[in-house]
User: Fold this.
Amino acid sequence: MDNYIVSARKYRPATFQSVVGQKSLTTTLKNAIQNNKLAHAYLFCGPRGVGKTTCARIFAKTINCQHPQPDGEACNECESCRSFNENRSYNIYELDAASNNSVDDIRSLTEQVRIPPQMGRYKVYIIDEVHMLSTAAFNAFLKTLEEPPHHAVFILATTEKHKIIPTILSRCQIYDFSRITINDIVDHLEYVAKSEHVSVEREALNTIAQKADGGMRDALSIFDQVVSFSAGNVTYQSVIDNLNVLDYEYYFRLTAHLLAGEVSQSLLILNEILGKGFDGQHVLTGLANFFRDVLVCKDPQTLVLFEVGDAVKEKYKNLAQQCSDAFLYKAIEWSNDSDLNYRYSKNKRLLLELLLIRLCQLNQQSSPVADKKKITIEPLVPNEQTAPVEQKQTSQVSQASQSSPKTVEEKPLAARPASSGPLAANSPLRRSIKPVSDQPKEKAPETETQNPVLNEAFTQEDLERAWKNYAGKEEDAHLKNTILNISPQLQAGNRIRIAVFNPDQEDKLKSKAEEIKRNLSGQLRNTQIELEILVTEDEKDYVPYGGRDIFKFMAEKNPAIISLAKEFNLKLS
Ligand SMILES: [Zn+2]
Assistant:
């Protein structure tokens, strides 16, 4: 292992045949060479490390080969081929436009272009990262590209095709290189490992390939890194340790707890993951991908989209059988939503925890037979507790198949005895769970309104959170925006002042007043709230005048001031 050579260089393909993962493209190139249909300019586009420059070099070698093979490959034996393979050919000229992008650089190139090759038929000019050329350089190059000498072939390579000006695009044959599939990368790494006598676990290579995101060059350099780290024994464990990759075992364990509705265990695993230094966003993205993979494993038809080794595939398949489609759809959707909201969230950890809690509850809805003893925090949208078991099951099943949401959401919220569950009513955890009740409650029929009176205290902060939640359910994007722009103010006596900016908004919100009230009541567990919707022009400019006025103003903003004043027996002079 001492003299380990960088694999990306050592295993650079020398023939079209050996280029990994670009079969159709290399075939087209070979055919063009065989049929003598060469263009003067090619544009190779695609992500980094997928073989653009490698193909350009093979192309240059092949069109100069003195004894081209019947299959369109270079012979790799003639003097020209050898000079190419030994990096001493004068018929290939590479310019990295990322660092040589001035007009002068291009001028010195175009001057060379005029000189015909001493040996062989073509001089090939590879311009890498061609989108980095300055506009002036582009224009200087354009002239050469319009009237190239017969012996000149240009191969322009770019990772950013959209930055190439149309006048250049129209003069090139365009080849789009694709990301290399995980399986192709793994196969190639396995081949390299075998040649280097390095022992590997296929799962380890899979993780490397995923990390490389479709780029072979990156995959090989990561591979080198892991080989030297693990002293030639590349195991899955050594890869995740070395690359700081989140072990999928965590996701398996986590999902098992989510399915069982075990909130506490789920939160503990999250804690463990975060404790290892993984970023929350990373966890969310990983979770969304994980659920996606599980979903893909449900159906033999989509199983091909899942690029892992067989042993792991089996694990995923087993898990897939335990998850309902409804669970997976929601799990993917919610994880993805949380991922999107993560950047804007002020309490990022809570966002993650809420997601897990919701996912725990989700499966409680669809699997009524879940072991009650395991539920450490009762679901917010719980089972109908009074209903007989049989009926419960049928209603749960219809719930799971997403047919009719019935009234399951509204009633249990109220029917739930306040003392049930191991969490005290004012525990911070319970409070944080509150806004989770997610479906809007508008469907509740009128006959259901004999709910017991709820009058839980809530703060301005609770109100704002509930309000945001409510806005999130609004489907009309315009109205949603309006709602989000309003900040409701908690007044004394459970009154909520909703100040809108114009009569039009006032009408809209008033027409929704009942729905808003119902929703907020549910979320805040307070059926005593009153809404006050009014147009304001100067809410923000309102300047209270005098001590009493200021007190009143402040008390309206924060009713706690009244009790504070009472507590300390404060008096206004
Ligand atoms: Zn040759």
